[in-house]
From TrEMBL:
Name of the protein in question: Transmembrane protein 236
Transmembrane segments: 12-32, 44-67, 88-106, 118-137, 264-284, 296-317
Keywords per UniProt: Membrane, Transmembrane, Transmembrane helix
Domain of life (superkingdom): Eukaryota
Origin species: Phoxinus phoxinus
Length: 351
């Protein structure tokens, strides 16, 4: 009987393979329906469907399976820490052709003078959701799916107040008494005959116990009582939430491209191209220092320019909230990374 580790590996690989194939098949079938309407021929429909099957079979046998075998068996990429080859292969083999077919579908309908199918919600709900699933699998792969979070799973960043160190503060009388007992010890030295002086021995004796007890009280106060379940936090759940938050800006941009005035115009080309460039950020590991700069250069800055242009041409097809988000992301990155290095803003006495 296979171990749970093997079962988990098989489930992960099946889920990623399903996310690789299903978006391509669905998008190509919808495109084939448009081709059949435009050409008035069932032959064109089945040719497109057969092409999709042949493409996925070739991509799976020639790229996906060898890459997965190379990663899982030889561990050649175990030393790579800044990028994920499986995610790169998925973005190239699945997301790129899906976006290309969606753009081609718009071009075919505009040239034919018909408005038959604009793939409503398909790019967002299927293509990007499959990409998010692949991203989640890559992130959660090192973690256990059963039991409580411990060990490696606690290495996730957990924002909030953390009690790290407490130092005992002695009273003036205690210090005077300690100085009276240790007259032969220099006030500048805490060591006498190779050992700690009385004042430092007292701090060493009482400090750890008070520190541990205070830390215990701090922790027990936060996680005790009838409503202690509201304090529960699991990094595996945070991983799911953080992954979806990571993709929301790209999802909104692709959603704008699906609206009627935008989809049947030339603006669909730059929108999908920039959306795909922002998707390439998924190739970088989440803990890589390259992620922040790549997010600003490949997403926030280009999205800001395109959204302002869309707002001027089509009106409020995109929420102003995302424009403000892109502005704040770009301005904060430039300020904290570049401007704070200037002498004028590098003074500790300011703010």
């Amino acid at each position: 009987m296979p171990s749970w580790k093997t079962v988990k590996l098989i489930l992960y690989e099946l889920l990623q393979f399903a996310c690789l194939c299903i978006p391509v098949f669905v998008v190509m079938e919808r495109f084939a329906s448009v081709i059949r309407l435009v050409k008035s021929s069932d032959t064109a429909y089945w040719l497109v469907v057969a092409a999709s099957v042949a493409y996925m079979a070739s991509a799976t046998l020639c790229v996906w399976v060898p890459l997965k075998y190379f990663i899982l068996k030889t561990q050649r990429f175990s030393e790579v820490t800044n990028w994920r080859p499986a995610t790169l292969a998925y973005v190239i083999l699945s997301t790129l052709p899906c976006f290309a077919i969606i753009i081609a579908n718009s071009k075919v309908q505009v040239d034919a003078g018909i408005k038959y199918d604009r793939f409503t919600e398909l790019p967002v709900s299927l293509v990007l959701f499959s990409l998010i699933c692949v991203d989640i699998v890559e992130r959660i792969r090192p973690l256990r799916l059963t039991g409580q979070a411990s060990g490696l799973e606690l290495d996730f960043e957990m924002p909030g107040p953390v009690l790290t160190h407490l130092e005992q503060v002695t009273s003036v009388s205690a210090q005077l008494q300690a100085n009276g007992r240790d007259d032969d010890t220099s006030p500048r030295s805490a060591v006498r005959n190779g050992s700690l002086s009385g004042r430092w021995r007292d701090a060493d004796a009482y400090g750890p116990s008070r520190t541990s007890s205070t830390a215990y009280l701090y922790s027990s106060h936060s996680h005790s009582g009838p409503f202690r379940f509201v304090w529960i936090r699991d990094p595996r759940h945070d991983l799911f939430v953080a992954t979806f938050m990571f993709w929301f800006d790209t999802v909104e941009m692709v959603r704008v491209a699906g609206t009627d005035p935008v989809y049947y115009s030339a603006w669909v080309f730059p929108i999908y191209i920039l959306a795909y460039l922002s998707i390439l950020r998924a190739v970088i590991t989440p803990d890589s220092p390259l992620l922040a700069s790549s997010s600003v250069l490949s997403q926030d800055l280009p999205f800001l320019v395109v959204r302002i242009c869309l707002l001027g041409v089509f009106g409020y097809v995109t929420p102003v909230l995302y424009i403000l988000k892109n502005i704040l992301a770009v301005v904060s990155f430039v300020y904290f990374v570049c401007m704070t290095k200037l002498k004028l803003l590098n003074k500790r006495s300011m703010f």
